[in-house]
Each structure stands twice: as C-alpha cells, then as structure tokens.
Specification:
Length: 311
C-alpha cells in the first residue's frame, strides 16, 4: 500500500525525522513522482526525483535541467531577487558556472589546503581539549557549530574574533522558517544579515586588494588568464555562499552523524576498531544525514526522465 507522500512538510521531519518509508516507496514504485501538494505556503507542484541514476543524469545536463532558470532553492523567489541570486555559483549554469568555478579552483588548490591542514587539526584538538577539561559538552554548540566557522575564518583570512558574529548572521539568513529563529522582525533580520555579510566581504576584498597575501581570497580576486576578474557582487555572493552554506551544512552533517552513532553504537565501535574506515565514514555520514535534502532544477524544454514526460 502506498504511503501518503508529503516530502515538504517541516512538521513531519520534526515529529519523526526524514520520511524514509516515503523515499523507499518512491524509489521502488515512482522514482520520478508528480508531487502536487503545495503545502501551507502554496508552493507549486513539482517532480520529486529520488533515484541516484536520474539525479546523476539531470545533474550532467544543465542545458535541459537548469539551476539558473528558477534558482536551486525550493521556495519561490521573486524575479527581482532571483536576478541577484544568479550571480551566486550555486544558481548558475554553464558557461557562467564554468567561469566562476575556475576562479574558485585557483584558490582551493591541494597546496593551499595542505598549508591549512595543520592549523585545522589544531582547531579540532583545541575544541576537544576544551570539552575534555570541562567533562561535558553539548556537541552541537561546543564542537559541530564552532568547527566549520573557525575553519572558514581560516580559509578566508577573517579574524577568529569575528566568528561568533558570522555564526549569528548565518543563522538569521537560513533560519527564516525555523521557529528557533523566527520573530516578527525575522525577514528584516534576514535582509539586514545579508547586507552585513556583503559589507564584511567587501571590506575583506578591499584589504586584500590593497595588501595581497598568499591566501584563498587574494587568489580569488586576481585576474584570470583572459584578464577577467570577479565583480564585487560575485565575490560578495561567493563569500556569503561559503560562510552560510559551508557553515550550516557542515554543522548539520556533523551533528546528524553523531546522532546516528548514538543510535547505532555498533557502527561507532566498528570505527573505533578500524580507523581505516574513517574516510568512507565521512562520505557515508553526508549521505545518511543529507544536510541539504531538496534542490530544484527547472526543465528548459519538454523532456523525459524516468519514464515520465516533463514539460
């Protein structure tokens, strides 16, 4: 018997966690499924794509399934706001995405990441030592939340004393529909947080242009082989994407992964007994937790996917 399919009701996730039984049924019976329910916010119907091979196919064909047409976020965005969001790499299709990715790849080289490895290891050790000295911890607050923020501050050369403010701003940006962060001024706080992050990024770029350093931000701001540079808006939005998406997803993956180990202690014991499993465990935690579980693509033409005709 088919379960009731509702993948977008936040109350479902809060009450009982991810609707695994719905995903299992969809993959077996309707891997490309017309999800007509729009929810309380009146979202339009959409095709829910739940099978790996179909997701891989649409990801490899941006000319058919666009990230830019209506952006990748699930909710509807007014066109006036969507135009600015298309300057963010997440909401680009080739060739714009290819150009932007080339800038980013220059900063995130193996040599640059290798230089940061020792410092990142020290950040982890300091966080663990602090917890050990106190004898107790809230894993989310004490480890999962500060770790990605400190690493991101290290990546972009931002002072560590700024991390709490960046954390607060990122929560306001992504938490508009989270009761923990909702308030009558929620949308105004979200807008103000975005403006403050833009301003922070602009100040950081100005400092690096005046005094270049051997770091990722300096490399991002340098001209490419064709003499092109990132515009101010492109850099500011990349910084926002890194500080918000990179922070929240890593925090949630680590928190969800630790919860999964509490719920399946035999898996934790496997890891303790065989540390060679750690690299695969990191990938498996991201798969299992799925810190982002809904991205959107928009069909640019009539097409077919998983045996379904898509307009």
């Amino acid at each position: 018997m088919a379960p009731e399919i509702n993948l977008i009701d936040a109350d479902v996730y809060q009450r009982s966690g991810p609707p695994y039984e719905q995903f299992t049924w969809l993959r077996e019976h309707a891997p490309v499924y017309w999800h007509a329910f729009g929810g309380a916010d009146g979202w339009p119907g959409f095709w829910a794509v739940t099978k790996h091979e179909d997701i891989a196919y649409l990801s490899r064909h941006p000319e058919i399934f666009s990230s830019a047409r209506r952006l990748v976020v699930f909710g509807e965005v007014p066109e006036v706001g969507a135009a600015m969001q298309r300057l963010m790499m997440l909401n680009m299709d080739p060739p714009q995405h290819t150009r932007q990715r080339a800038f980013v790849n220059r900063g995130f080289t193996p040599r640059m990441i290798g230089r940061l490895e020792d410092h990142i290891t020290q950040i982890c050790q300091d966080l663990i030592d602090d917890v050990r000295n106190r004898g107790s911890a809230d894993f989310v607050t004490d480890i999962a939340a500060p770790l990605p923020l400190q690493v991101i501050c290290e990546l972009v050369g931002a002072p560590l004393e700024d991390r709490d403010r960046i954390y607060q701003l990122s929560n306001h940006l992504v938490g508009a529909d989270d009761p923990e962060f909702q308030s009558p001024t929620g949308q105004r706080l979200q807008h103000a947080a975005a403006l403050e992050i833009y301003a922070y990024a602009g100040q950081l770029a100005e400092r690096r242009r005046a005094r270049p350093e051997d770091d990722i931000v300096t490399r991002l701001l340098q001209p490419n082989e064709a003499g092109e540079v990132l515009t101010d808006d492109e850099f500011d939005l990349f910084f926002l994407l890194l500080t918000v998406a990179g922070n929240e997803t890593t925090r949630n993956a680590a928190s969800g992964g630790m919860l999964a180990f509490f719920e399946a202690p035999e898996q934790w014991q496997r890891l303790i007994e065989n540390p060679s499993l750690i690299p695969a465990a990191a990938e498996e935690i991201v798969r299992w937790v799925s810190p982002v579980n809904m991205f959107r693509r928009t069909a640019t033409c009539d097409t077919e996917l998983g045996g379904q005709r898509i307009a």
